[in-house]
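A quick aside before the break. I want you to see a complete sequence-to-structure record at least once, exactly as it would be stored in a machine-readable document. Don't worry about memorizing anything.
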Amino acid sequence: MFEITPEFLKQRNCVTSNARLPYNPKLNDRAKEMRKQMPRAEKILWFDFLKNSEHKFLRQRIIDNYIVDFYCSELNVVIELDWDSHYENWVQEYDNERTEILESYWLKVIRFTNDDVYNNFESVCEDIKNNF
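That is the input. The structure line, written in C-alpha cells, reads:
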C-alpha cells in the first residue's frame, strides 16, 4: 500500500483543494478531450446506466496522476473498463500499481472488460449496484 504524504503528492505533481482527492491539474485538458471522445463501451455504460443512477457518477475524473473512467465520491467507487491491451504483462503491472494507489485513497476499484459491457451488460450493472 502506498503512503499518501505531502512529499508523495508533490513528486507526482498533485494538488488538493476543497476536500477533493489530489489530482494533477496538467491532466485537465486531456480529461476534457476524453469525455468528448468516449470509447463505445464507456458510452454504453454511461448513457444506459450510470448517467441516470441514483448516485452521481463523473466521467473521466482526475485522481492523483490518473484519469479514471467513472468515479462516484458518494460511494468512494472507481469503475474502470479495460481494453484487450490490458492483458499484456506491462499493462497489468501498470494497472496493479494504479489500483494500489487509488485504493490508498480509500477508493474501491471495480474493473470490467469492454467485452463484459458488450456481452453481459445486465451482469455488469448488477455488479455495480451491489457496491451501492
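Two observations worth writing down. Residues 6-129 form a domain with the Endonuclease; Chain A fold (CATH 3.40.960.10). The chain has one domain: 6-129. We'll return to this after the break.
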